[in-house]
Amino acid sequence: MNGVDEAHLRRALDLAEQGRRTVTQGAMVGCVLVRDDAILAEGFHARPGGPHAEAVALAAVADARGATAYVSLEPCAHHGRTPPCADALIAAGIARVVVAAGDPFPLVAGTGIDRLRAAGIDVEVADRASPIGLAARRQNAAYRTATVLGRPHVTYKAAVTVDGRTATRAGDSRWISGPESRRLVHEWRAAAGAVLVGRGTAIADDATLTARDCDPVAARQPLRVVADRSALLPITAHVVRTSAEGAVLVVVGPNAPASRRSALERAGVETAVAADAPALLALLHARGVQSVLLEGGPTLAGALLAAAVIDRLAVFVAPGVMGDPAAPGLFGDALAPVAIADVVPLASLEPETVGRDILLDGWLRDPP
Ligand code: AOF
Ligand code: ZN
Predict the structure, then answer these.
(1) For the segment 202-213, what is each residue's pLDDT rounded down to a tens digit?
(2) Which domains does the chain have, with CATH numbers?
(3) Whether residue 54 lies in the annotated active site
(4) Ligand 1 atom nearest to CA at 84
(5) What is the edge-to-edge ordering of all strands in the sheet holding 30-35?
């Protein structure tokens, strides 16, 4: 794979990215058809159930014979809601296929590549650990995590002062990060399968958790989920009162009083039972949620960290110092002292300037 191949694969990833908000189930995929150094056609997967990226690109050109197809994901080999892309590429006379990442979906998982090769097509797959291979897997972190691990991908978003405090000891967190950071979070909400908070945060912030400050305006809202073991969320909470703006699910513990559950349901929210953090994620997975944006608080985040189900950290570090050791940090409820040897290592940590804040993008693990 040379520099030109990589540039076209990058373009395929950029195209795939256009499905970020709409493809909340399944994979984001982009495809570029190139012949004699010229781009013939491009396509991306725009919505679940809709045509695949390769089909979109092939439909845009009368004759693709001899072309190279650059795809961000291995072409499918199965009849899903659309016919197999591998067959379409073969039928179109494509000479070469360059793939950024394999498709872990059991009905594909290498058979797309095998089928292309069996038809005499030259297939090249980016190394999993190469920059483009890793970028392709990270782009579809939600899809891959859901497909391989059977749970949603979890990103913990938080805003901290330079001394790592997420709120005052009284629970006030408005606002630690700046307006540009908060706007970015609305963009993330618009693309998330679900936004998750603990009951304490739902009450303290009285947050709505909808994607509002977005451009273009969000066409769909994420499922809003409140983890509330004892079902103590008051029906006057903003998230409950705005249930008409988008679905709200309150996940309670097995011992939550039935009367509280029915009060919440009468107020317009749905309730479900989960015993612990993995069960909560299993419940969301069963509902087709591929990605969770965890927005705190520290108690819930601590439980998810302890269960090793936080995949990515998005921490906005704001230019301020709290200076109060009793103010909460990112993770609460540590049960035992932690030794240096217990520090959870990150696969990567990268900074980005967002307004006056610095966003730390940390991957605890790379997608499968
Ligand atoms: C591709 N190109 O653009 C996409 C692929 O429900 P369906 O019929 O859309 O099938 C979903 C599966 O197809 C999904 O799990 C993944 O394996 C593949 N997605 N494949 O060749 C595409 N979106
Ligand atoms: Zn396909």
Answers:
(1) 998 888 999 998
(2) 3-139 (3.40.140.10), 152-363 (3.40.430.10)
(3) yes
(4) 21
(5) 38-44, 30-35, 68-71, 96-99, 122-125
